[in-house]
Give the backbone structure.
Amino acid sequence: MKRCEITLALALLVLPAASFSQELPRATPESVGLSSEALALVTERLQAHIDDGDIAGVVAGVMRRGRLVYFESLGQIDLESARPMPDDAIFRQYSMTRPITSLAAMILWEEDAFELDDAVSMYLPQFANQRVFTDARNASMDATKSRTTEMTVEHLLLHTSGMGSRSSGIYRQEGVRLRSITLEQMVDNAARTPLFEDPGTQWRYGISTTILGRLVEIWSGQPLEDFMQERIFEPLGMTDSGFWADPSRADRLATVYRPGDDGRLRPHAIEEIPFTERPTLIEGGVGLLTSTRDFLRFSQMFLNGGELDGNRVLQPETVALMTVNRVPDALLPISNRSPGRGWSLGFAVVMDAETHPGFTVSDNEFWWDGSAGTRFHIDPELDIVTVINAQVSPAGGNGFREEFKTLVYAAILEGR
């Protein structure tokens, strides 16, 4: 049976839209092997980060064995108006958009829309003759060489395409990424700008997933946002997810803050076009807004092997394919700051928990975060999901995300 036939058969099992609004099932911490007393310390420490001015507010959740056992909204959504942080606050996810775009692509892979080793130029011919910078550290449009390897779809998923960060100097100089241009224009800009290295020769985090979002449009025949709404958000009950906060949701969009020279948090505009306006660029790399509840649902679907509330969006075999390291050994570690970490078809993957830096993790855990203070973890070994959302830039916030994860794991009483 072909991948597409299997997917069609599974699609027939999807429940009607009325099921999409189901709430996450709840349980007491002790019933799933966690300590209520230890989780109270999690709340205490998050509140301390707010009191100390590291973050303005936060919404954090924990699921274990498919049950919601911790959910706290603390602090304020906006300091100037002193409005309390609501449970359904909406957050700019930035890089946490990438796993969702990767899911969109792999749904289409199941339907035989493409193969992982297909050349990107099969679908985007403007990439056929793309050149490579002679010196990636001093990128110049006047110093380039011929490309020696072909860029594939898997290179986009793995961030081994040779494309760089949206904030790189040369991309800014060339106007590669602007929220005021179309996705097609950004793709053209990326294709005319040389690569930092030949595809498949180095892991470099960057705009690859935004290019993947354009491929989703080509394969599906739909705008990216429509495909995500129809095939991901609706089946998973992700009612707060989208690429902008329309007037009905704008008051739930948390304000981004940045510490001033005096250490006090002040509102900070990361983008020239605010997320309360519909952007021209629908960006599969960094463009999504969502709530903590929605990201818990997304994460639990992966932990369940591709299904949530009876709605299957991905086959278990594809989930397994997406959540193991696929970066070749020769390119590891993916960063000198990240021993013990690899990259899958959409996620960072823990390959060695003992050497993984920064916070408590398990082997085979997969996760990622966003540059405005968001992070999620999916841990199959301990059957636990954690999601934490704040809005601070830079995202560090004096380690509030790392401490949250470590303290949640300290609350585990059984199953370790």
Notes: The mean pLDDT is 94. The two ends are 39 Å apart (CA to CA).
